[in-house]
Amino acid sequence: MVIIILGSKSDLEWGNKIVLQLAKFGIKNLIHIASAHKTPDHLLQLLKKYNREDDTVYVAVAGRSNALGGFIDANSQHPVINCPPFSFSYAGLDILSSLRMPSGVGCLTVLEPDAAALACAKIMVKSDKKLFETIKKYQKDFQEKVVKDDQDLRK
C-alpha cells in the first residue's frame, strides 16, 4: 500500500498525478493531508496506524518548506519518497528542503509524479510477481518508443 501524505490541500493536484500512475501499476493507495509544521500530532497518529502494515511505502508531497518527508522518515521504518510539487517561486530553490536531510534520515527525492509511482512499484515488487511483469512491460514500452523515434528520424 502506498500512503501519499500531502502537506496541504493545495498539493492535491500533484498527489492525484501520483495516484493515476499508481493505478497503472495496480497499486493500492490512500491520500491524507497532514503537515509536519502545523499538525505534527495528526501526522504521528497516521504514521502509528500505517507503520503496523508490512508493505507500506510513503510518498510525501509538500511544497515550499518540506519538513514532511524527513518527519515521516524519522518516525517510520518504511521507505519514504519525497515528490515535491514544482514551483517557480524562489527560482525553484525550495527543492533544497527535500534534498538536504539531517543525519539518520534517509528519504529519497523524486521530482516527477510518474517517477515517484515507478519508484514505489519497484520497492513493492519483491512481494508481488505480477507487479514485476507490469514494470517490465512499462519499461519495454518506453524502450521501444525510443528505438522507433530513432528509426523515424532516419526516414
What does this structure look like?
With 155 residues, this protein is of the alpha/beta class. It has a single domain (2-128), classed as Rossmann fold (3-Layer(aba) Sandwich), CATH 3.40.50.1970. 47% of the residues lie in helices and 13% in strands. The model has no long low-confidence stretch (mean pLDDT 91). This is N5-carboxyaminoimidazole ribonucleotide mutase.
Q: Which CATH C-level class is it?
A: Alpha Beta
How many domains is the backbone divided into?
Answer: 1
Under CATH, the topology can be stated as Rossmann fold
What is the CATH architecture annotation?
Answer: 3-Layer(aba) Sandwich
Based on Cα principal axes, name the global outline. Answer: globular
Question: What is the arithmetic mean of pLDDT?
Answer: 91
SSE topology string = EHEHEHEHEHH
- The value of Rg in angstroms is 17 Å
Query: Low-confidence stretches at least 5 residues in length (pLDDT < 50)?
Result: none
Please give the number of β-strands: 5
What's the helical proportion of residues? 40-55%
Report on the biggest sheet. 5 strands, parallel
The quaternary state of the protein chains shown equals: single chain
| Structural class determined from secondary elements | alpha/beta
Function: Catalyzes the conversion of N5-carboxyaminoimidazole ribonucleotide (N5-CAIR) to 4-carboxy-5-aminoimidazole ribonucleotide (CAIR).
Enzyme class: isomerase
Catalytic activity: 5-carboxyamino-1-(5-phospho-D-ribosyl)imidazole + H(+) = 5-amino-1-(5-phospho-D-ribosyl)imidazole-4-carboxylate
Binding site for substrate: 8, 11, 38
